[in-house]
Specification:
The structure holds two protein chains of two kinds. Chain A is an all-beta fold. Chain A is 0% helix and 49% strand. In chain A, strand 5 and strand 6 form a beta hairpin. Chain B is globular. Chain B contains no helices and eleven strands. Classes of the chains: A mainly beta, B mainly beta.
């Protein structure tokens, strides 16, 4: 079945450091890929998405490229801020997959802590 | 848009009691999803509605769980005879049209079963 695997956290960085959070997936068909972010005490928010191979999603300085050949969708940011501290979830949608419900399949989440 | 709302935000109950959660999606969103999130894990799909029709249920949704979406607007998720293993965050999400993929999440209802 479809699945998503993220690097384990927590990831602790100093402000202005470069961030990479790895995400790989297993899927039938050609799913869309997402990064959601969950700030402390808040709900999940969509950070960025990509709907087909080689697409790059970007938002708020974060970016991720849909790599079909490596089945990956790694999240990167060139210079993190303290305000980026949150839990980041990689997810895929099965809208083009086995059941066509559009349900999201999430990774386990990666906690990012940015220190000043 | 006012966003997806969920009530209550927190619920503490004793084992064996019934609980009901409510989700109000963004107005005119056709699809509504329920997910469950346990500590340290990503959300897991429970069920989804397109308008008032419940079209898929996960194997995670035991017979003690039931969900409705009368008139295709708000939705309720009921858990009967709660167990300690039901303790989790219950998330609701909606999306605007059948082919859309972006889901907008509510703040969740945190359930603690004592």
């Amino acid at each position: 079945g479809n699945s998503v695997t993220q690097m384990e956290g927590p990831v602790t960085l100093s402000e202005e450091a470069f961030l990479t959070i790895n995400c790989t997936y297993t899927a039938t068909g050609y799913p869309s890929l997402f990064w959601y972010v969950q700030y402390p005490g808040e709900g999940l928010q969509l950070l960025l998405k990509a709907t087909k191979a080689d697409d790059k999603g970007s938002n708020k300085g974060f970016e991720a490229t849909y790599r079909k050949e490596t089945t990956s969708f790694h999240l990167e940011k060139g210079s993190v801020q303290v305000s980026d501290s949150a839990v980041y979830f990689c997810a895929l949608s099965d809208l083009d997959g086995s059941s066509n419900t559009g349900k999201l399949i999430f990774g386990q989440g990666t906690t990012l802590q940015v220190k000043p | 848009d006012t966003g997806v709302s969920q009530n209550p935000r927190h619920k503490i109950t004793k084992r064996g009691q019934n609980v009901t959660f409510r989700c109000d999606p963004i107005s005119e969103h056709n699809r509504l999803y329920w997910y469950r999130q346990t500590l340290g894990q990503g959300p897991e799909f429970l069920t989804y509605f397109q308008n008032e029709a419940q079209l898929e249920k996960s194997r995670l949704l035991s017979d003690r769980f039931s969900a409705e979406r009368p008139k295709g607007s708000f939705s309720t998720l009921e858990i009967q005879r709660t167990e300690q293993g039901d303790s989790a965050m219950y998330l609701c999400a909606s999306s605007p049209r059948p082919a859309a993929e972006t889901q907008y999440f509510g703040p969740g209802t945190r359930l603690l079963v004592l």
